[in-house]
TrEMBL record:
Coiled coil: none annotated. It comes from Mariniflexile aquimaris. This is RidA family protein. Its EC number is 3.5.-.-. Keywords: Hydrolase.
C-alpha cells in the first residue's frame, strides 16, 4: 500500500504565497515520521562562518540544510516547515533569500514558513541567517 503524501494547502480566502516561497498549510498524514532539525547557518566543516556577505551566507546555509537532509535519508521535498531567522531584516535581504532559494532549493511544493527578524544570532559573530526545518516522510 502506497503511503499517503503530504498535502500542501493554500486556501482561496488567503493570498497566493507561492511568490514568497511558502505554503499556508501542510497536512502530514498519519503514520509518517517527523524529523526536527536544529537551525543551520553559514558554517564550514570547522564551524566557522564562511563569509560576512549575506548572499554567501544564504548559499552556505541552504547547502548545510541539504547535507543534513541527505544524511537523514531525506530530500528538500520532504521539508514541511521552515523558520528563517534574519539579522537586521530588510526587503533586500528577503529578496536575496528568495532568489538564492529558488535556484538552490527546487521543490514541488513550498513548505510552511516564517521569517523572524532579529538584532543578532547566537551562532557566531556576524552570522546573518539561520534556518530551522521540520521534515516528514
Amino acid at each position: 500500500m502506497a503511503q499517503e503524501k503530504n498535502s500542501f494547502i493554500n486556501p482561496k480566502g488567503l493570498f497566493d504565497p507561492k511568490f514568497n516561497g511558502f505554503s499556508h498549510i501542510v497536512k502530514i498524514p498519519k503514520g509518517k515520521e517527523m524529523y526536527y532539525f536544529s537551525g543551520q547557518w553559514a558554517s564550514n566543516i570547522e564551524g566557522k562562518l564562511v563569509s560576512e556577505n549575506f548572499e554567501e551566507q544564504v548559499k552556505q546555509t541552504v547547502s548545510n540544510i541539504k547535507t543534513a537532509l541527505e544524511t537523514a535519508g531525506l530530500s528538500i521535498n520532504d521539508v514541511v516547515k521552515q523558520t528563517v531567522y534574519i539579522v537586521d531584516f530588510t526587503l533586500e535581504k528577503k529578496q536575496i533569500l528568495i532568489d538564492v532559494a529558488s535556484k538552490e532549493w527546487r521543490v514541488k511544493n513550498f513548505p510552511t514558513s516564517t521569517i523572524v527578524p532579529l538584532p543578532l544570532l547566537a551562532t557566531a559573530p556576524n552570522c546573518l541567517i539561520e534556518i530551522e526545518i521540520i521534515a516528514a516522510k
